[in-house]
Every structure is written in structure tokens, then in C-alpha cells.
Amino acid sequence: MNKLIFALLLALAPMLGLAAGGGAHLDDAGIDLGDQASLQRGAKYFMNYCLSCHSAKFQRYNRMGKDLGLTDEEVINSLMFTTDKIGDTMNIAMTEAKATEWFGSPPPDLSVISRARGVDWIYTYLRSFYLDDKRPFGVNNIVFPDVAMPHVLWELQGAQKAVFKLEKGSSGKDVEVFDHFEPVTQGTLSAEEYDQVARDLTAFLSYIGEPIQMERKRLGVWVLLFIAVFFVLAYMLKKEYWKDIH
Ligand code: HEC
Fold first, then answer.
1. Which residue minimizes the CA distance to atom 2 of ligand 1?
2. What percent of the chain clears pLDDT 90, i.e. is strictly above it?
3. Which of 71, 205, 217, 218 could form a disulfide with 114 if both were Cys (CB 3.0 to 4.6 A apart)?
4. CB atoms within 10 A of CB 153
5. Cβ of 56 less than 6 Å from ligand 1
6. Nearest C-alpha neighbor of 128 from the set 96, 99, 163
């Protein structure tokens, strides 16, 4: 019995680890994958602001066009900067060695980052860069402390500083915990507009993390409807078969 409990605890341990991980509060991304305009904007931001450093090498341009309701011409003319072949995957020219030299840690491929981190994490991450002189690019991030990525969207968001407060940690000592952000310089967008940019980007990253998910959800409704109708038929049939016995 003891062994069983021990085994059970071991099996649960990774879940406890996950629950404790990070610590920072995550905001609800509120993305809507049925909103094609949001996904199209997300794709545009991704190509313009992210694809220079991050690849998405499991995603093809033409597949994206189809899923997002764009023609091949639209994709070629406004979304393709690194290749001229519509059937190509989203690669970048920067090598991993060069990236490590420049940033310390190379920018990871973002194909499945939404599955690894979750959409709320990405949404919060994109809105949580703050000024910090101790970092090489002058910014740090609340949900990814000491991140090697510069705040590439700073012109849109503006610069902000983080205000920390002291709280008693579990060891009894005072620890600094994040309280809130204060704007330092104004960006070209309002706070709400910038949140929408972060949301569009998060939606796009969620889409490339599982391109079939819109189709899966659409089909899922029909499958459930079919099961509901089939249940009624099966129940009537059962009644018919058993009526002489009961
Ligand atoms: C100038 C290069 C550069 C650009 C442009 C850039 N990033 Fe990054 N990004 C990095 C680097 C470097 C890291 C690795 C951080 C680390 O490991 O410390 C990173 C990390 C990340 C992570 C966290 C990955 C993880 O390990 O969990 C996400 C998410 C991310 N970037 C998203 C984006 C998005 C979205 C954009 C476009 C708006 C973008 N990045 C633009 C350099 C860049």
C-alpha cells in the first residue's frame, strides 16, 4: 500500500512542479481563432517583427494562406519577405551560431511555442517587457526573467518600468515581487491597441501551433450533433427490441 501511495505521489510530482513554475500572474489572452481578420493581422505582425530572428519551420506559406482566407498572390505580395516560393516553410537566414554570438541564447523556432508555453503566457510575455539597465538590450521581462530578446515592439507600446513591492517569502525574508507597470514613454499605439496587437500575434502563434484546430473544432460540433441524433435512434431501436420481454 505504501508503495502504491509513493508511486502515485511520484506520478503527480510533475504536475506540482508545473503549478509552482513561473509564479508571475498571466493575463487571459482572449484570442478568437474564428476571427480571421485577427489571424491575418497576427500573420502580418509576425512576418514584419518576428521572422527576422525566429523561424516557424513547420509552417508553409501556402497552407497559411488557405487557412487564413488569403490568395497566393496576397501572401506573396504582402507576407513573404524571406523567400519567393509559396510552398516554402517559414525559415530565416540567421544561423544558430551567429544568433548565439549576438544574443547569448538563440531565438527558438516558434512553430509550436504556443503548445509549449500556452497562449496566456505568450500574450503576457509580449506585454511585459520593462526597462532594466542591467540587461544587454536595456529591457527585462516579468514572465521570462533575464530574457535575451530585445523588446522589438517598443515603438508600438512605448517604454514602461516595473514597480516591485516587498513581500515576506516562504523563508521569512523579504522578497521583491512585481506589482504593476508605469509608462515611461508613449508608444504609437494606445494601451488597448497594443493589447490587440499582442492578442493578434498570440492568435497567429496558436494557429501555427496546430493549423488544423479551427477545422477540428468546426468538425467537432457536427460529430457531437451526430452522436446526439444517433443516441435517439439507438434508444428507439432498443425499445423496439425489448418491448416483448419487458
Ligand atoms: C532581434 C531578434 C528577435 C526578434 C526580432 C524577436 N525575438 Fe523573440 N526571442 C529572441 C531571443 C534571442 C529569444 C531567446 C530568449 C532567451 O532564451 O533568453 C527570444 C525568445 C522568444 C520567446 C520565448 C521562447 C521560449 O523559450 O519560451 C517568444 C515567445 C518570442 N521570442 C516571441 C517573439 C515574437 C512574437 C516576436 C515578434 C513580435 C519576436 N519574438 C521577435 C530574439 C528575437
1. 53
2. 82
3. 205
4. 20
5. no
6. 163
201 lines ligand 1 (CB under 6 A): yes
- Within 8 A by CB and 6+ apart from 16, the residues are none
Cell of 186: 508613449
pLDDT digit string (tens) for 145-201? 999 999 999 999 999 999 999 988 888 889 889 999 999 999 999 999 999 999 999
- Check pLDDT > 90 for residue 106: yes
Q: Which amino acid is at 6?
A: F
Asked whether 181 and 130 are in contact (CB, 8 A), the reply is yes
Between residues 161 and 9, the one the model is more confident about: 161
Structure-block grid coordinates of residue 242 = 425489448
Mean pLDDT of 90-107: 92
pLDDT over 80 at 23, yes or no: no
Kindly state the percentage of the chain with pLDDT values over 70: 91
Residues 123, 162, 41: CA angle, nearest 5 degrees: 25
Residue with cell 460540433: 221
C-alpha cell at 46: 509576425
To test the ligand 1 pocket, which listed residue (45, 53, 105) has its Cβ within 8 A of the most ligand atoms? 53
Among the atoms of ligand 1, which is closest to the Cα of residue 52?
Answer: 5
**CA–CA gap between residue 10 and residue 30 (Å, rounded):** 34
Query: How many residues are given for the chain?
Result: 246
Query: Which amino acid, one-letter code, is at 107?
Result: P
- State the pLDDT at residue 62: 96
Question: Which residue type does 213 have?
Answer: Q
Residues 6+ apart with CB under 8 A from 233: none
Q: Which atom of ligand 1 lies nearest, measured to the CA of 46?
A: 37
